[in-house]
Amino acid sequence: MRILSLGIVAVICGVTGFVGVMMSLMLLTAPNTSPDTQRADSVPQATSPVGPQAAVQPLSPVFSPEVLYWSDLIRAWAILYEVDPNLLATIIQIESCGYPGALSYAGAQGLFQVMPFHFLPGEDYLDPNTNAHRGIAHLLFSLQSYDNHFGLALAAYNGGVSGVQNGWSNWGNGQNSGDQPRRYYLWGTRIYADAVSGRTTSPAVQAWLAADERNHPNGPSLCERARAAQQQLDEQADAPLAG
Fold first, then answer.
1. Closest CA to 188 of 111, 104, 47, 94
2. Which stretch of 14-28, 53-67, 191-205 has the lowest confidence by average pLDDT?
3. pLDDT above 50 for 211
4. Separation of alpha carbons 101 and 115, rounded Å
5. CA-closest candidate to residue 154, choices 103, 122, 128, 190
6. Distance between CA atoms of residues 117 and 206, nearest Å
7. Catalytic: which of 95, 213, 224, 235?
């Protein structure tokens, strides 16, 4: 392919001279600059989201209260798996809004919305620690597959690693025409960027909470269910032990 490209340049050189060479090189090396990819590439990248230093980053206050309910566990998971707690919170924000009983139409379950095939027989899909263990394993595989690029890893977490390999316009591996992984990328990168920027509030989180069901994978209704479930958990924790 490179030889063919150089041959094309040589032909253009003979016809149009130096200007032709420069124009041909620009055409041959131009990146994909569709509006969608320009929009995605404009999201700032933070430092690596994995490793011991990333794991001890402070958990940002920008997430919704239902996500921050799990703060202690999020910090513990971050240290255990050496991943930025803000990236874990970003996934929980988008996937479940902190609702441990979340269930998607595709069958994904729990805080991290993990598909059943990621679990071992007999494991409790909805147990927060088990769900986190399987979800974070999938996230780390996605990060490893895309050189720790958190945006591509988020898209792969949602749409599968193989479904993100063929370029922005083909994301999704034929499922939902790639719309969901693209939305996931845009929501996730913006929320995570706000979280690691030092902000105390996140325009991206507020936009996610205000958006309707068509514009992100789940919906703000999850937050209502999360609040109800968390209230029930608190009541159970406060209840006196039976004699």
1. 94
2. 14-28
3. yes
4. 13
5. 190
6. 33
7. 95
Residue 207 CB: number of other CB atoms within 10 A?
Answer: 14
What is d(CA 24, CA 170) in angstroms, rounded to the nearest whole number?
27
| pTM score of the predicted model | 0.77
Measured on CA atoms in the order 100, 61, 189, 180, is the torsion positive or negative?
positive
What is the distance between the alpha carbons of residues 155 and 217, in angstroms, rounded to a whole number?
12
Contact 182, 36 (CB under 8 A): yes
**pLDDT per position as a tens digit, 173-184:** 444 445 778 888
Euclidean distance between CA atoms 97 and 224, whole angstroms: 9
Nearest CA to 97 out of 228, 236, 193 is that of: 228
Q: Half-sphere exposure of residue 12, counting CA atoms within 13 Å on the CB side? A: 17
Cα 150 from Cα 137, distance rounded (Å): 14
Q: Is 95 a catalytic residue?
A: yes
For the record, the structure tokens of 203 come out as 């325009």
Q: Which distant-in-sequence residues (6+ apart) come within 8 Å of 189 by Cβ?
A: 40, 43, 150, 151, 154
d(CA 55, CA 52): 5
In whole angstroms, what is the distance from residue 104 CA to residue 218 CA? 8
